[in-house]
Amino acid sequence: MNTYLDFEKPLAELDRKIAELENLSSSDDAPQLGDEISKLRDKSAKQLHDLYKNLDAWRKTQVARHPERPHFVDYIKHAFEDFVPLAGDRVFGEDEAVIGGLARFRGQSVVVMGHEKGRTTENRIKHNFGMAHPEGYRKAVRLMDMAEQFDLPVVTFVDTAGAYPGKAGEERGQAEAIARSTERCLTLPTPMVSVIVGEGGSGGAVGIAAANKVLILEHSIYSVISPEGCASILWHDAARAKDAAEAMKITAQELLANKIVDEVITEPLGGAHRDAVGTVRAVSDAVEQNLVALSSLSPAELRKQRKERFYAIGRA
Question: Whose C-alpha in 23, 25, 29, 189 is 20 to 30 A from the C-alpha of 130?
Fold first, then answer.
């Protein structure tokens, strides 16, 4: 059953009526309701199209955070084969907020990693809501070291509100761990493609997204801070998150215009959560195309391309 966002309430009511009529028409002595159901379905489809045609930044933020949006574990299940997870940073411990390992992607061996938020309450606690501790980024460095050793491309999936901001993370060197992970991305001698599949927040996102190509799903967001955090700092009022979202230019289309991302991947009508399998397929196609395009570059050329890509951000 779909979870409807606040702005989708009119659609939810319409879909509820359709479901009621379908249940009623399924009984033997029910009146013929096929025409009425068909009209309501057409109306629902049009309303869905109209709602998603011009989403503002705040509504896109809500879609990016939708609980039924495909998670990293869904991409592993449907886009990769023979996934072998590798745990631990060999310094402190395992961080379930970042999952990574070796896999086969459309016939090619790769290193793959990504943030996992979890879905159930128990699962979200296990994965710390996708907010990585320092050991998560040190694990990412370990995996990228392995990618260099065995000459493997790296594919990353970003979906986090940000790195874990608590005392424990700071005590274990959060800022240093993110910096080291970002540096390792930039110095990697093999192709690297990153995809923002949900929410890309702060250094917690950049730590595994300083890639040759940064892709983003149509209704995902990518920003230096969450809209709520920005509103709290600027106006001392988190309730003004909508204003902050509009001012921060965090949508995929704005990010592409500002050359912060390289490609926007179209989502199914109504968002990725309405067709997870189709979304995974579209993301996989885009990742494959970019890996193929990068495969002809030498290690020096890959590093140079990455360096020039990030230096160019913000320049006229």
Answer: 189
Q: Answer whether 188's CB lies under 8 Å from 298's CB.
A: no
Phi, psi of 82 (to 5 degrees): 55, 40
- And the tokens for 261? 């991302």
Cβ atoms of residues 24 and 185 within 8 Å: no
* pTM score, whole prediction: 0.93
Q: Which residue intervals of 71-120 are DSSP H helices?
A: 72-79
Report the relative pairing of strands 263-265 and 213-217 from DSSP bridges.
parallel
Return the CATH number of 61-311, one of 3.90.226.10, 3.40.50.720, 3.40.30.10, 3.20.20.70: 3.90.226.10
- Other Cβ atoms less than 10 A from the Cβ of 305: the count is 15
| Cβ-based neighbour number of residue 168 at 10 Å | 10
As a whole number of angstroms, the distance between CA 293 and CA 273 comes to 29
Q: pLDDT of 82-119, one tens digit each?
A: 999 999 999 999 999 999 999 999 999 999 999 999 99
Predicted local distance difference test score (pLDDT) of residue 34: 72
How far apart CA 112 and CA 117 sit, in angstroms, is 16
